[in-house]
Design goal:
The protein is of the alpha/beta class. Helices cover 19% and strands 39% of the residues. It has a 5-stranded mixed sheet with strand order 3-2-1-11-12. Strands 4-5-8-10-9 form a 5-stranded mixed sheet, with no helix packed on it. It contains 5 helices and 12 strands. It has one domain: Metallo-dependent phosphatases (Purple Acid Phosphatase, chain A, domain 2, 4-Layer Sandwich), CATH 3.60.21.10.
């Protein structure tokens, strides 16, 4: 059967109905850091698996609640998630050795506010950055990712555009 994952990042204390609507049907919600305010996590749909890492803007309260890194396995897919990951082939400092050490099938990060999915042959890992759901930053369009994990496979990956960042700011 598998699990449906909703992957978000860089909320920077902002979450709205557009995001929440897309997370209603998922089994697990992953947040790849820069939460901003813990109220964002509290507003997520209840009854879902939750995996969260902190980012560079997160305060000590958030850091006390969530780690900087998560290494876990879901449906036979090993996942490494951190906030600042860079991107293939230029990962952030220390990331490539960590990928080699942990050997995940999926590497998830945030920070850039740019949605990017790429298979990195040199590390044999699928790289995912869901972009940003928040309204802080230089990104033009807010995005998230949804995908299924089943029997060791990553399936039905889709990018969800949540609209222009400027429009969300006006509606705030």
């Amino acid at each position: 059967m598998g699990k449906l994952i909703g992957l978000i990042s860089d909320s920077h204390s902002y979450i709205d109905e557009a995001v929440l609507r897309h997370l209603e049907d998922v089994d697990e919600i992953w947040h790849a850091g820069d939460i901003g305010d813990l109220k964002v996590i509290e507003q997520l749909p209840k009854g879902k698996g939750l995996r969260v890492v902190t980012g560079n803007i997160d305060d000590n309260f958030t850091r006390a609640a969530y780690p900087e890194e998560q290494l876990f396995e879901v449906e036979g897919v090993k996942v490494l998630m951190i906030h600042i990951g860079g991107k293939p082939p230029r990962y952030a400092k220390g990331v490539k050795p960590r990928i080699k050490q942990t050997a995940p099938k999926l590497f998830v990060c945030g920070h850039s506010h740019i949605l990017k999915i790429e298979f990195d042959q040199s590390s044999n890992v699928l790289f995912m950055n869901p972009g940003a759901i928040g309204i802080q930053g230089f990104h033009q369009v807010r995005t998230l990712l949804k995908f299924e994990l089943s029997e060791g496979q990553i399936k039905n990956l889709r990018a969800v555009e949540l609209g222009k960042r400027a429009q969300a700011r006006i509606n705030q």
